[in-house]
Amino acid sequence: MPYPLVGASSGSVMSEEHHQFLTRVRHLERKHDAMGRGYSAKIRPDGLIVLAPKKIESRISARSVVLFLAAFLVFKGFLIASIGLDGYQDRLAKLQAGSVLEQGGAMVMFADPLSQMIAEKIGPVLR
Questions:
Q1: Which of 23, 66, 101, 119 could bond 80 through an S-S bridge, CB–CB 3.0 to 4.6 Å?
Q2: How far is it, in rounded angstroms, from Cα 115 to Cα 127?
Q3: CA-closest candidate to residue 79, choices 119, 117, 114, 112
Q4: What does the domain layout of the chain look like in residue ranges?
Q5: Is the distance from CB of 43 to CB of 81 less than 8 angstroms?
């Protein structure tokens, strides 16, 4: 608490008012910090100019994540189609016997049904 309560008992009316004051101060401090990262000005229909902090937008869009996951699944499908499912499973078994990092890689690279379906579609194209 940045402003200690001095001279008031915990159950008094003054204490409650001081608590409300501190709550308002904290809200203003958070808004001030947010405005320091950028703000936008808008004119309301009554002509009042209102400043509001800019909303933080993620640098990574949902579309980018979906495209990355799709490319990763196609990559796994390509590996399964080129090596063959048995060879792929053998290599995953070697990864699972390795270090913690290799075991994590084996968990990510497991032959899921979608990757296998993609491999079945890509397989005839590779041959």
A1: 119
A2: 18
A3: 119
A4: 13-53, 62-126
A5: no
Classify residue 67 by burial, with Cβ atoms within 10 Å: 0-12, 13-18, 19+: exposed
Q: Model pTM?
A: 0.56
Q: 109-125 b/e with 16+ CB inside 10 Å = b?
A: bebeeebeebbeebeee
Q: Assign residue 56 a region: left if phi > 0, alpha if psi is -120 to 50, beta otherwise?
A: beta
H or E element that contains 42 = strand 39-43
pLDDT in tens, 4-50: 555 545 556 678 899 999 999 999 999 888 888 888 889 999 999 98
How far is residue 24's CA from residue 3's CA, in Å, rounded to a whole number? 12
Taking a C-beta distance cutoff of 8 angstroms, is the pair 78, 116 a contact?
no
